[in-house]
Design brief:
Layout: H1 2-30, H2 33-40, H3 51-124, H4 127-170
Helix pairs in contact: 3-4
Protein name: DASH complex subunit SPC19
Biased composition (Polar residues): 108-118
InterPro entries: DASH_Spc19
């Protein structure tokens, strides 16, 4: 019986060794399990949404942006209109200044010719003629001032008419 018992003990020891090596193999295979489970876990990088949800989000965004865009467009158009009015005003001022320059040149030319005529006339006549020449010169200057004022008022009236037409057209 001792021989059968001894063979059972050896068989049991070999089974234990086999079980220990199996446990070691399993332990080495399972020791990396937490890392493997983390690596193999599926993650949602991109969430898929239904099309109606996307359309609702697009519409909400459009509803939010549309008033701002409309406001910016109105500001831009108002600024463009203001610049156009300013351009017209500057053009009218330019025309007014050109009119002033041309009338001044005309006045200088006519004054020079009148002065030379007065000098010729004053040299021939007496003291009464000199007084008439001074009076004539004063009247000529007054006439030139009045012509200048009339031209200026005409240019201003045309400018105001343009502005009135623009304001009526804008309404």
């Amino acid at each position: 019986m001792a021989a059968s018992l001894s063979s059972s003990v050896t068989s049991l020891q070999s089974s234990l060794q086999l079980l220990d090596s199996s446990i070691d193999i399993l332990d080495s295979g399972v020791s990396d399990f937490p890392r493997l489970s983390k690596v193999l876990r599926t993650r949602r990088h991109f969430e898929l949404l239904p099309e109606p949800t996307i359309r609702e989000a697009q519409q909400a965004l459009l509803d939010e942006i549309t008033p701002s865009i409309a406001h910016l467009l109105s500001l831009a158009s108002n600024h463009v209109e203001k610049l156009a009015r300013r351009e017209q005003t500057l053009k009218a001022k330019c025309e007014l200044q050109e009119g002033r320059l041309s009338s001044r040149e005309n006045r200088q030319t006519s004054t020079q010719s009148q002065n030379s005529a007065l000098r010729n006339h004053a040299g021939v006549g007496s003291g009464n003629a000199a007084a008439r020449a001074v009076e004539l010169r004063r009247l000529v200057q007054k006439k030139e001032r009045l012509q200048y004022a009339v031209e200026r008022l005409e240019l201003q009236s045309t400018q105001r008419e343009r502005q009135l037409r623009k304001s009526m057209a804008a309404q």
